[in-house]
Amino acid sequence: MLTAIVIDTTGAAHTLHGKAGDSIMQLARAADLPVVGECNGSLACATCHMVVDPDWAARLAPVGEDEEAMLDTIFNLKPTSRLSCQIKLRADLDGIRLFLPA
Questions:
Q1: Half-sphere exposure of residue 16, counting CA atoms within 13 Å on the CB side?
Q2: pTM (predicted TM-score)
Q3: Is residue 79 exposed (0-12), middle (13-18) or buried (19+ Cβ within 10 Å)?
Q4: Rounded to whole angstroms, how far apart are CA atoms 49 and 12?
Q5: E strands along 2-66, which residues?
Q6: Does the pLDDT value for residue 14 go beyond 90?
Q7: Which of 42, 55, 44, 39 is nearest to 5 (CA)?
Q8: 27-61 pLDDT, tens per residue?
């Protein structure tokens, strides 16, 4: 079992558990966190936006063209903003920390 830690807008930490290949969006929705994911991970919206802890951001694959286009549609973009549907759990990301945007 792998974990991801999501910090909500109140500062509360939520530990999510999943297996390799699960998306952070799927896990957050299953944990009833306020992550919409309207397009179910098809890169057609940005409603699963999260901010990756800078200590973890470099471990992720670079932002692809389609993800970049969706990120450009949000107003509260941060340097480590990503779409959580595009972050899949894997062993080297065990314990990754992300923040729900305000």
A1: 28
A2: 0.95
A3: exposed
A4: 18
A5: 2-7, 13-18, 49-52
A6: yes
A7: 55
A8: 999 999 999 999 999 999 999 999 999 999 999 99
